[in-house]
Amino acid sequence: MLLTLEKVEALAPDQSSLDAARKLLKAGSWPVVASNGSGLIWGECQGSGATPYRVVVSEGDAGYKCTCPSRKFPCKHSLALMWIRVEGKRAFVDAPVPAWVSDWLGRRRGAGTGEAGDSKEEKAKASIAATTSNIAQVESDPKAEARSAALRERNRLEREESILNGLDDVDVWISDQVDRGLAGFAAQATQACRVIAQRMVDAKVSGLATRLESMPARLFSLPESARPAAALEELGLIHLMAQAYRRQEGLPAALKADVRRAIGWAMTRDALLADESATRVRGAWRVVAAISEVQPDRLRRLETWLWLEGLPEGRPDAPRFAALIDFVPVATGAASGGYSVGDRIEAELVFYPSAMPLRAQILQSLSGAQASEAPLELPEQTLDDAYKSYERALCKQPWLGAWPFSIRNARVRRHETQLFLCDGGEGSNVALPLQPSQFADASPLLALAKLDAVGLWDGYRLNLCWAQTELGRWVNA
Q1: Does 116 score more than 60 pLDDT?
Q2: Residues 32, 133: one domain?
Q3: Least confident of 146-150, 342-346, 441-445
């Protein structure tokens, strides 16, 4: 059957889904829409997260799939893609079927979602015409907008006051831990951090709450002898963040943005795109790492790390690495982002304001992601040079977190049950320990005399993400 507006209405689970789908019809929401010319359409829809949602629809039977975590089927993205196709106001580029669409086709069972009315459950009739009138009504109420703006400002001021009170509490808590002595802090850190983290949640200091609640796990990942010094460093950084927040008006704009984000203030995608000073970089990006991690707040943190293939002309200082970060509830079951390691993406990225720009959003996809086996053309850089770049970054942004770097002509060496990344040449004084969890997967690299690598250094351990060797590419499983 061919898609029609009546079919889209019949598929919609409720009126609110159609209302939400209508808001996604503008071209800017869809950097990529394509077709294979045989009844299969797909696209990438830019949502509030860093990674676009991938949507595919089979026109013949109205089968669909979207990578978003929605529990409505079809979701607003699937409905919007069908709607765009039916209206015919946007051309769908003829393109080869990408791997993620082929994978969906291979895993499909049955003919798709079925005809409208197959469901045994009754549902209210959704109407496309109703979405037009509802939106027009909302847009024609400037008084409501003014009231909403005033309410948002009042809420902001109340949160600022709550945050400052919470920071006072965390300073007292840190003093108490130091007075008790940090030699035994790790042993009782789980309970102590949970209590103060809950206080930070109540005070709306969500960034510090997450950092505090995850602190015990970071400490216990280290050798026992290193934990007291690491605890002192962690508490010192939290105190520094609190002090920086109190004095934020005297900080450079980029560092002020870092401080507010670390404390828990979020910058919306719309605000980021409206920031004319935000760094924008257009080029070919390669996915070098895809990390999925469950946080104590029951959100799954999805990190996609990108490497820029070649610097833009006239911009030698453009960021070479970018991190796309999304958060999804653990309950949704989503365990990965939309890209796989090795994918190549032609896109323009916009970076969040920062003293050391790393986190970014995709502003515009110039082409869909394509799997690539091509090697990375990494610049000449020793491990010594890479570590010095980390130290310089730390001076500009002390609570940096994971820092990416690339090195050439390195090698992996072993001491007892610990693997290290070292310079392949002689005379280097730097050897970075790899994550213990990588011991089994990275051990085959011991047999190689040299390799080119990309990794994430957190100040304690290196997460080796990508290694290019004479035998081929190794990636972190």
Answers
A1: no
A2: yes
A3: 146-150
Regarding whether 257 and 163 lie in a shared domain, the answer is yes
Domain count within the chain = 4
Confidence band for 132, pLDDT divided at 50, 70 and 90: low
Which of 82, 116, 139 corresponds to the end of one domain?
139
In this structure, is residue 372 part of a structural domain?
no
Q: Which of 211, 236, 262 is the last residue of a domain?
A: 262
| Calpha distance 406→408 (Å, rounded) | 7
Residue 406 and residue 453 in contact, taking contact as beta carbons nearer than 8 Å: yes
Report DSSP letters for 36-68, one per residue. Answer: -SSSEEEEEE--SSSSPEEEEEETTTTEEEE-S
Q: Is residue 376 part of a domain?
A: no
Q: Is 244 exposed, middle or buried (0-12, 13-18, 19+ CB in 10 A)?
A: buried
Look at residue 85 and give its three-state secondary structure: helix
Handedness of CA 56, 58, 59, 64 (dihedral sign): negative
Judgement on whether residues 32 and 63 belong to the same structural domain of the protein = yes
| Strand, helix or coil for residue 352 | coil
The lowest-confidence range among 8-12, 347-351, 438-442 is 8-12
Sheet of 40-45: strand order equals 63-66, 53-58, 40-45, 32-35, 93-94
With a cut of 60, say whether residue 85 has pLDDT above it. Answer: yes
- pTM, 2 dp: 0.76
Say which CATH number the domain at 354 has: 2.40.50
Q: Is residue 31 part of a domain?
A: yes
Q: Is residue 377 part of a domain?
A: no
Predicted local distance difference test score (pLDDT) of residue 115: 39
Closest CA to 361 of 345, 374, 375, 340: 345
Residues in CB range of 253: below 8 A, 6 or more apart: 277, 353
Phi–psi pair at 17, nearest 5 degrees: -65, -40
Residue from 374, 401, 391 nearest 458 by CA: 401
Identify the helix (H) or strand (E) that includes residue 373. none
In whole angstroms, give the CA distance from residue 439 to residue 443.
6
Residue 254 has pLDDT above 90, yes or no: yes
Q: Which of 64-78, 260-274, 460-474 is modeled with the greatest confidence?
A: 460-474
Same-domain check for residues 252 and 341: no
